[in-house]
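pinned: reference chain
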Amino acid sequence: MLGRLSGKATITLLGAAGEVTGSCTLLHTPRGRVVIDFGLFQGTPAQEQRNLLVPDIGWSTIDAVVVTHAHVDHCGRIGMLPKLRCDAPVLCTHITAELLPRVLKSSANLQAIRVDEWKEGTGPIARVVDPAPASEPQRGEMQPPVMYTGREVEQVLHQVHGIHYDTWHEVRPGLRVRLHDASHIIGSASVEVAWDDAGVTQSILFSGDLGPHEGPMLRVRPALPNVDVVVMESTNGLRDIPRNTAAAEALGEVVKRVASRGGRILVPTFALGRAQLVQWRLAQLSRNDSLHGMKVYLDTAMAIRASEIIGRNPDLLAAEPKRMTQAGEDPLEFSALHKIFNRRNSLKVAAGSTPGVILAGSGFLDAGPILHHLAALVDDERNAIIFAGHQLVGSLGHGILHGARLIELKEGIFPVKAERVHLEGYSGHADRGDLVHWLESREGGSPRVMLNHGDQAAREMLGSMVREQLGLSVELPAQLLPIDV
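pinned: its structure tokens
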């Protein structure tokens, strides 16, 4: 069993060590044991099978599980806690607590559907045909994993407790947590954990996923507090990303170009964060009369729900959307926007020919309404597919973005003739300059820095920058290797 009780504190990465999914970290202290996030491994079928291999950390002895935000690579295995005999409180912001039931119930339902489809041979087909994929198992060849059921989700939801930003919450005597806004998606948080030991207080901050320093939708992140150790994400450790005006203009140019040829635009959409950012940019184009007659279809119920939450929380927003909300305007609403709530209407939009922009899930093009929209427009050169963020290696989205010529969907085999557009500036993650700035503008101290949630090249590049520019100690922990604090 990892992390047996002892008098010293250790950190163990249980996932997201040299990769960008499966976030989960065990913090063992003399005062108690806390798990930060319990997320899904995503990507290939082999990656998904890893979700069943949960390290033995003595889950029944965990004192709290803290969820940084409602993306499945950070929360998607929370439904496994009953099976692991872990009845610890699940702590998160109030907004994340509101989103978790939808995320976990949707995940449980999808797991059950995938198994039924696999048994019946009716599962979704979403793969590259040319160039031929690698020889590793393709989706449909392996039985999809079942991590938890809807009943187990109902059980674990009784353990979820929303807590306020910037307020200490006692987990056990001498062990406490405090959440700081991470400005990654609505309700996201960095987690500060402090404990008392022999008259000395130690503290660690887990960044979770950090948003850009000054994003267009969410407020500016607070300064990094004075802590002993920082466990920080490094997703964009290799990248500097253009923001704001450049990103908005780039989207506007694609809309103008595709509208002029009577085409349609498909945007593979992550429902929490990315969808709202793209929706905000399209709303700006609409208000500037720059949609060129294009309708906009939002085909993801989760994204619709997240947009509603944003409107109820103006204090968490950047200056302009906050001003609009306080003036009684919804910053994400505009006349050309049409929300799709059921499959019938989704199929109707896919079968149509009216020029428009379709935002649909899933973001990796592996399931959901995105697939029938893709089948309807991928083989027409008038159309365009916009990739506004990272695509996992092995996903159909990654294959199309990187030059696939033929793809197979349930509806048949299609040549990829639609224009492929990779738009920068729509990532909800801080880029490397943002991450270095966050460390540089800390409230004080010289913390040890441990990098997680990034591929190895990103961790190494960011680590070098932090050492050279800030003179801080940087470590790149390996998975399952406890590190003394």
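why pinned: The chain has a mean pLDDT of 93. The longest helix spans residues 94-120.
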